[in-house]
Design goal:
- The complex is a heterodimer of chains A (316) and B (185).
- Chain A is mainly β and 316 residues long.
- Chain A contains 1 helix and 28 strands.
- Chain A has a single domain, classed as YVTN repeat-like/Quinoprotein amine dehydrogenase (Methylamine Dehydrogenase, Chain H, 7 Propeller), CATH 2.130.10.10.
- Chain A has a 5-stranded mixed beta sheet, with no helix packed on it.
- The radius of gyration of chain A is 19 Å and the shape is globular.
- About 10% of the residues of chain B have low confidence.
- Classes of the chains: A mainly beta (316), B alpha+beta (185).
- At the A-B interface, loops of A face α2 of B.
Chain lengths: 316, 185
């Protein structure tokens, strides 16, 4: 019996070990909008390893909690596209209508949320049935979406209302709005679920929101036309599209630390799981950049498809 | 007959995603021209944000702030210019980045009627690169959205119309700069 248990445990260990080796092959998935495809970049070697056709001018991206599936918005074909990130193939497509842009996955439920730019709502998609199961009214032209780590709240950056909507996921109802800067686009929630950061395209700043208090705690000036915010090592990083820079700021004092020369139209930004690197999709230069969040320097760069946006969570 | 109807319905059902395919997708246009002249000579012609007389469409450039880039749209502390075109159209622009050493600058359109140029949120780069001592490349690269920002744009304000308008403008302007410099005028 004990032998059996032990060998089962050993087998389980081997099996987990095999799974682990799949999971640790860290990758970035960039939605290349004009090229209509998706690039897979190995983050250890900083080399593109695969490129697959998506269609419909892909922009937004979210990953399933186990990171084996990617959910991609294609605004031109008005679709949500499911990609098997392991076998690197499109598995299902769903016409959701309107202008799907931002997308976020729930940390536990089989649900993804799609922001509809034109009809001012969030579309709830059941990822098992791959069907629309609900709509949630929010502000005008919802863009970026983010879910709190506890899975209770969905936050929506409502670009043309200059607000962030707080949605209660259980009841699928908007329960609060917080005014932010002009034209918030990307929204990022920290790992603790305590603060949210919006990149405000028109007011050239980042708004910092206390999620529990549902109030603004500060603003950080950025370069021209910030698109999204990444978080790593106690610092925030905004991608400044027109400024062609990444502005680093301190998360405690909210003071800017350094403006890093980046690329033409830096857009999607995310820190890897170890938080030792931050990655930026450069729409204008067709590259993925790696930035060291401590040294505040660009440490790597690799070509991807034409016009990477990677709007959302794109690292696995 | 029924079968044929069913096939027609299936075809029609699959059409909307293709036929009505539009959304908020930023467009990109890059054009360049090789010029038989040193890079410094080309930069001397195109490198001043306050003088766009090198573009044949432009009748007049009026502006302020020299070649100092703006840090913020709200404070409006950098260089701006107003272009009056030969056909009467007016374009307001702001300088975002300027590097004389690298011979490059970036600017954006702050206001333009879609009848003048069918675009929204337009920004662009002008760069001169040396290809040896007596040859250079002048590149013009633009990023913009189409003229009609909602779904289902009319043909004159769709993605293709925006790309064509910008691409045609770049091509005829670059050709004119090449002719002007190589012609020694």
């Amino acid at each position: 019996m004990s032998f059996l248990l032990r060998s089962t445990a050993a087998l389980a260990f081997l099996f987990l070990g095999a799974l682990q080796s799949v999971a640790v092959a860290a990758e970035a998935l960039t939605t290349n909008q004009p090229a209509d495809n998706l690039s897979f970049v190995n983050l250890d070697t900083m080399k593109e390893v695969a490129r697959i056709k998506i269609g419909g001018k892909p922009a937004g991206i979210a990953l399933s909690p186990d990171k084996t599936k990617a959910y991609i918005t294609s605004p031109d074909s008005r679709e949500l596209v499911e990609v098997d990130a392991v076998s690197r193939a499109v598995t299902r497509r769903l016409v959701v209508g309107g202008g799907p842009v931002g997308v976020a996955a729930h940390p536990k439920r089989p649900e993804v949320y799609v922001a509809d730019w034109y009809t001012h709502k969030i579309i709830v998609v059941d990822t098992n049935k791959f069907a629309v199961v609900g709509n949630i009214a929010v502000g005008k032209s919802p863009s970026g979406l983010a879910v709190t780590p506890d899975g209770r709240l969905l936050l929506s950056a409502d670009r043309d209302s200059n607000t962030v909507s707080f949605v209660d996921i259980a009841s699928r109802k908007r329960i609060a709005t917080v005014p932010v800067g002009d034209h918030p686009f990307g929204i990022t929630i920290d790992d603790a679920g305590s603060r949210a950061y919006t990149a405000n395209v028109k007011s050239d700043d980042v708004t910092v929101i206390d999620i529990a208090g549902r109030r603004v705690v500060g603003r950080v000036p950025t370069g021209r036309r910030p698109y999204a915010v990444g978080l790593a090592d106690g610092r925030g990083f905004s991608t400044d599209q027109y400024g062609e820079t990444v502005t680093a700021f301190d998360l405690k004092t909210l003071a800017p630390i350094k403006v890093i020369r980046a690329c033409d139209h830096p857009e999607g930004i995310e820190a890897d799981a170890t938080r030792h690197n931050i990655y930026v999709a450069c729409w204008g230069d067709d590259v993925l950049l790696r930035i060291d969040p401590v040294a505040l320097k660009v440490t790597g760069k690799t070509p991807v498809g034409d016009g990477p946006r990677a709007f959302g969570k794109f690292l696995r | 007959m029924l079968k044929r109807l069913a096939i027609a319905a299936a075809i029609l059902g699959s059409l909307p995603a293709v036929a009505l395919a539009h959304g908020p997708s930023r467009q990109k246009v890059t054009e360049s021209v090789e010029i038989n002249a040193p890079a410094a000579k080309v930069w001397a012609v195109v490198g001043n944000f306050q003088d766009m007389s090198w573009a044949p469409d432009v009748a007049k450039t009026e502006g302020k702030g020299g070649n100092k880039p703006a840090t913020n749209e709200a404070t409006n502390d950098g260089a701006t210019r107003t272009l009056t075109l030969k056909d009467g159209g007016v374009i307001n622009e702001m300088l975002d980045d300027y590097d004389a050493k690298e011979m490059t600058y970036a600017y954006e359109i702050t206001k333009v009627d879609v009848k003048v140029l069918p675009v929204n949120d337009y920004s662009s780069h002008i760069t001169v690169t040396a290809d040896g001592d007596n040859k250079s490349t002048l590149e013009w690269k633009g990023a913009f959205y189409r003229g009609y920002m909602n779904n289902d744009p009319p043909a004159n304000l769709n993605d293709e119309a925006a790309k064509k308008a910008v691409s045609d403008l770049y091509k005829r302007t670059l050709a004119a700069v090449k002719a002007k410099i190589e012609g020694g005028k």
